[in-house]
Amino acid sequence: MAQKADITAAVLVIGDEILSGRTKDANSGYIADYLAAIGVDLREVRVIGDVEPEIVAAVNALRARYDYVFTTGGIGPTHDDITADAIARAFGVGISEDPRAIALLLEKIKPEDLNEARRRMARVPHGAELVENDISKAPGFWIGNVIVMAGVPAIMKAMLDRVGPKLCKGLKVVARAILADNIPEGAYAAGLSDVARANPALSIGSYPSFRDGGFRNEIVVRGKDADQVGAAAVAIEALLASLREGEAGRQRAQMKSRQ
After folding, report:
1. Are residues 204 and 176 in contact, defined by beta-carbon separation less than 8 angstroms?
2. Is the Cβ–Cβ distance between 12 and 44 less than 8 Å?
3. What per-residue confidence (pLDDT) applies to 5?
4. pLDDT score recorded for residue 1
5. Quick one: which of 9, 71, 105, 237 is 20 to 30 A from 77 by CA?
6. Spatial CB neighbours of 179, under 8 Å, sequence gap ≥ 6
7. pLDDT of residue 2
8. Percentage of residues in the chain with pLDDT exceeding 70?
9. In CATH, what number is assigned to the domain containing residue 23?
10. Are 172 and 230 spatial neighbours (Cβ–Cβ below 8 Å)?
């Protein structure tokens, strides 16, 4: 597929169960890792409930802003599975049972067991391409730049594997991590801001954590030009070395003053 520098994406997680906390979202993180590996930048993740007007509004906003929108959830057999209808409404197209989807379901379900509820999973917006999976056989679909997938993580992963090879690929992000242990963020914040201003094409962040009874700071530089990332990392390492040397000098001075 074609490659360009920036391919962008958003994930729309759909389901009341996610918002209530009953079900923990395991899909957006997996999709983020998957997309990063093929050079697609995940720029936004939204979580919304099973409310059709809200799904329609979110889909239309996101698909206008990003190259791809991935949705998860709401394409099962129950009354609250309304994602397919919402997507059809967002695109202004009809929706009906798709013979291709019925054929897929019959690979897993006996004809006499294909009741009305299960047939709901064969309702597909007109003009959509099916996204198959080898686990449940109930398909997702792809319409425009919106890819609609199941909420069950194993099925979502199977669907993503099907669409992945068809996605446009971007330049992969290069990342460098620099440890800033024993240096508080407040000490290097100003210098780090200077490095960030000098490198507007890069993403530079400081990420503190607390472990083993103390703070552990890590600075991460991300970008698509390896040389720029490397140069910024060298500048940050020099900044930290200067701060460490300055602190060591202050400690030596204090020791001398006590003698």
Report:
1. no
2. no
3. 66
4. 43
5. 9
6. 216, 217, 218, 219
7. 44
8. 95
9. 3.40.980.10
10. no
d(CA 227, CA 41): 20
Tell me which DSSP letter residue 128 carries. Answer: P
What pLDDT score was predicted for residue 182?
Answer: 80
256 vs 158, more confident: 158
* Structural domains counted in the chain: 2
| Boundaries of domain holding 71 | 3-170
3-state helix, strand, coil in the chain (%, to 5): 45, 25, 30
State the SS3 of 6-60.
CEEEEEEEECHHHHHCCCCCCHHHHHHHHHHHCCEEEEEEEEECCCHHHHHHHHH
What's the rounded Cα separation, in Å, for the pair 122 and 135?
Answer: 16
State how far the Cα of 43 lies from the Cα of 61, in Å rounded to an integer: 13
List the end-to-end C-alpha distance of the chain, in Å, as a whole number: 71
Decide if 181 contacts 216 (C-beta within 8 A).
yes
Q: Please check whether residue 162 is in contact with residue 132, taking contact to mean a CB–CB distance below 8 angstroms.
A: yes
* Each residue's pLDDT tens digit, 88-144: 999 999 999 999 999 999 999 999 999 999 999 999 999 999 999 999 999 999 999
Shared domain for 238 and 155, answered yes or no, is: no
Span of 163-167, 183-187, 192-196, 226-230 with lowest mean pLDDT: 183-187
* Same domain (yes/no): 80, 163: yes
